[in-house]
Amino acid sequence: MQNRWNRHVVVMALLTGLFGLRVAGQAVQFWMPQSFLPAFESFQGSTLSYSTLLLIQLLILGLMLRTCLRIGCGISVPDRRLGWGLAWFGSLYMAGAVARIAVGLAIPSAPAWFSTWIPAFFHLVLAGFVLSAAHFHLRDSRPADRRAEQ
After folding, report:
1. Rounded CA separation 121/54 (Å)
2. Residue 116 is part of which domain span?
3. Taking Cα atoms as reference points, which of 120, 127, 126, 128 lies closest to residue 103?
4. Are 38 and 118 in contact (CB under 8 A)?
5. Does the structure show a pLDDT above 70 at 40?
6. What's the number of domains the chain is made of?
7. What is the distance between the alpha carbons of residues 54 and 145, in angstroms, rounded to a whole number?
8. Residue 76, phi then psi, degrees to nearest 5
C-alpha cells in the first residue's frame, strides 16, 4: 500500500509545486516586477485585494503541503467517507474551472474573469489536487461494512 501512497504524494507534490510557483510569480511581480514573467494583472483573476488573495493562497499552500506530508509519512489513513466528499467537491470544482475556461474561449465578450488564463489554469491545478487526495482515500480504504467485520 505504501507504493500507492507514494504515487499519490508525487502527483500531489507536483501540483503543490506548480501552485507555489504561481504564488511566488505573482509576489515577484507585485514587489519586484520582472520582464520575463507575465504582468501582475495576468495573475489576478478576482477583485480581491492582493493582500487578501496572498493570505488565502498561503493558507491553501500550507494545507496542500500538510496533506502531502501526512500522506507521505503514512499519518493520513485512507477514509472512504472523506474520499467521497473530496471526490464530489473536486468534481464540482473541476467542472466549474473547465466551464470558466470554456466560456472564456467561446464568448469573446465575456467578462475578464473568464479570460484571465493564469488563475483559470491554477483552478484546474487545485481541483486536480483535491481529486488526487480523493483517489488516495477511495483507492486504499475499505468499505465500512468490511471494516466492522474485522
Report:
1. 17
2. 2-149
3. 120
4. yes
5. yes
6. 1
7. 43
8. -80, 120
CA distance 144 to 48: 42
Rounded-to-integer distance, Cα 115 and Cα 134, Å: 29
CA distances from 66 to 22, 43, 95, 98 (A): 18, 25, 25, 27
Non-local (6+) Cβ contacts of 114 within 8 A are 100, 101, 103, 104, 107, 120
What is the per-residue pLDDT for 71? 92
Cβ burial of 103 (10 Å; 0-12, 13-18, 19+) is: middle
Tens digit of each residue's pLDDT (9 = 90 or more) over 5-24 = 578 899 999 999 999 999 99
Indicate the burial class of 64 (C-beta count within 10 angstroms; 0-12, 13-18, 19 or more). Answer: buried
